[in-house]
Amino acid sequence: MIHMKKFYLAETFEDAKQILKSCSYQPISMAGSYKILGERLGVDFGPTIQLFELLPVFLDGQRHAEIRKKMAICLANSRSKQEQAAQVAINSLPNLAATTTPINLMTDFIRPLWRAVSRESTGYEEANLILMDDIPRLFDSRLRVKDRLEINERLRIFIKNESDNIEEKLILLGQNVLGSGPFIGTLTLSLHKIFSQNIGKQLKDITYPTSFPRSSLEVTDLVNKNESSDSVEPNIVRCVIHSKKYSESEKQLAMFGLGEHVCLGRPLSNNIWTLLTQKLATMPQIVHSSELGLKHSPVEAEFNFLEIVDPFLRPDHLYVQFTQAS
Ligand code: HEM
Q1: Distance 286 CA to ligand 1 centre (A)
Q2: CATH class of 7-323
Q3: Averaged over 30-34, what is the pLDDT?
Q4: How confident is the prediction for the chain on average, in pLDDT?
Q5: Quick one: which atom of ligand 1 is closest to the CA of 68?
Q6: What's the pTM value of the predicted model, to 2 decimals?
Q7: Do 142 and 135 meet the contact criterion of CB atoms below 8 Å apart?
Q8: Does 177 have pLDDT greater than 50?
Q9: Strands (E), the chain
Q10: DSSP 325
Q11: Which of 22, 77, 245, 273 has a C-alpha 20 to 30 A away from that of 99?
Q12: Ligand 1 center to residue 68 CA distance, Å?
């Protein structure tokens, strides 16, 4: 008999909260998905599996608690250095905004800001920082096998070169891998939202919210721990974390997660947001236009046979044009 997966979309705040806090569901095992893919294709995804077995977002129970604690210590140790690096990058913003041609804030400011933050916490050379940026592509259901294998091979080289204390180094890599997608996407979407609502205003006269007004992490997929073909329960639940249908307070509550997997990067992200909005609040430039490009919407995405779905609403670019105040 073919076992058909039962899929359920938890799209109200109360429903999503209840499921995210329930002990009956656990994250989809990304390492498990890559084991299946490797067996089907007869290829070795060992390095990818080794990393994904250390990412708390895909773990459950005792193992999750153990790795989460190690990652939390690692993040706490690097936070002040990361914030200093963020401040230096933010200090370059007035220069960038001094031009009157449109600036791609995503490529010219937000990505370099994140790169500076992750360089500071890892001390990695450029090739490993680029690898760190590419690893989240492995979460995308539409990535070609050829590209998955290419990233897997670069990860193999990383593991070979960093073989001393490899678990520690993969945890450090993993924290940045989990941070880059939501940080870059959320900051891009948030700045676009603020700028597009304040066209014609000087940056210093805008009222900035105390945290990100939009998130790029839209969904979390969970599987039923008691999965069986004759169960009436759904096997897979997609919990909506960020939705236009949620009230502002629900959005803020859900933005960094609701259950045991609540985001470890929240203090760093919120502190960088504060540093950035403090700087914007000193700048005289007028917002002339803000144009956002979007790649992919996860709520509409289909599961593939691997049950991998990119959970991010991924912005592609953010062109902002400023005019100089006279
Ligand atoms: C504004 C940017 C960010 C947003 C909106 C965000 C959002 C989230 C959400 C919703 C979760 C829970 C996912 C789930 O329940 O499956 C999560 C988990 C996580 N985030 Fe973030 N995040 C952000 C930035 C960061 C940064 C910068 C880092 C690291 C430097 C980070 C590290 C993590 C980690 C390690 C987890 C997994 C925690 C666990 O599973 O126990 N995040 N994030």
Answers
A1: 33
A2: mainly alpha
A3: 92
A4: 90
A5: 41
A6: 0.93
A7: no
A8: yes
A9: 7-10, 25-27, 103-104, 219-224, 236-240, 286-296, 314-323
A10: -
A11: 273
A12: 11
